[in-house]
Structures are given as C-alpha cells and as structure tokens.
Amino acid sequence: MAALTLADEQPGCRLGWNMLAGIGKIESEHGSIDGARLLPSGETTPRIIGVPLDGTDFLATPDTDGGAIDGDAQWDRAVGPMQFIPSTWDVFGRDGNGDGRIEIDQIDDAALSAAALLCDPGLDLTVGEHWIAALDGYNPSASYNNDVADAAEYYAQFG
Question: Where is the Transglycosylase SLT domain (predicted)?
C-alpha cells in the first residue's frame, strides 16, 4: 500500500514494494524480531526498540526526543517495525492506515513513512545508484545495503 501511495504522490520516485519489504525483513523480520508479532491492528507487541545508539555497534546518536518515543533520554534508539530513530520519525512519520494517528509501532504507518523517506530526494529508484543513495539515507552501511538488496531481490520474484 505504501509503494502505491507514493506512486500517486511522487510518480517519479518509482519505489518498488520489494524495497520496502527488504527493509522490513532486515530491520525487524517484518515485525517479528525477538518474539514480537503484529496484531490485527498492525501494531507490534511487544514494542520493537533497538539498542542504544551509543557508538558501540552503530553510529553514536545522542537523544533527540527526551526519551518520549524510544524510552531513552541519553541515546536515540531505532523504534518500530521499520526501525526509525525519533528525529527521522518526526520528519517523515505518516498515517499509512488512515486512522488519523501517526504511530511508529504500526506497520502501515511505518511503511508509508519509510517510503516517504526513501522518495524524499526525488530520485528515480529504478536507477541503481539512486536506489543505493536512497537506502544510504535510511541506513548508511554497505552491509545493510547488501542485505536489503538481497531481500528485495528475493521478494521481487513474487511480483
């Protein structure tokens, strides 16, 4: 649904659903990482909250939300099924399920928000270097990029 919404809003982006699926797979096993699951409402339970971004395993990202979204007032943490850090969520958070709320833990909201972030540069994502640049804006790690590409390629075979 998110890719279709962005196709209407930003047809030049040409975001494939499989790119979002690849991100969802790598970020949270589609909302099922560490025993979490998606409820019929599309929300994850329990909440998916990543490790503190304190520079140990990932780029150090000091707190940007006073702990309001991620529960950590010292470091940011990635949250939800598409793993947004609070400052990025503040910019790109969207209501993907049309319920009037923008919820980081709700899969439709998170997927549409990810699509908005990926399409923000205004690039045609069917062009290889544009796809990579958009994904780098999501997570600037070469290994992450390769993992998402592999997952997206796998999903592409299902049309």
Answer: 75-120
CA nearest to 105, candidates 79, 68, 139, 87? 79
Task: Provide block-wise average pLDDT over 10 residues at a time, the chain (159 residues).
Answer: 90 96 97 97 97 94 98 98 98 98 98 97 96 93 95 94
> What is the pTM (predicted TM-score) of this model?
0.95
145-156 burial, b for 16+ CB within 10 Å, e for fewer? bebbbebbeebe
- Alpha carbon 82 to its chain centroid, in Å, reads 3
Separation between Cα atoms, residue 148 and residue 112, nearest integer Å: 17
User: Are the C-beta atoms of 123 and 13 separated by less than 8 Å?
Assistant: yes
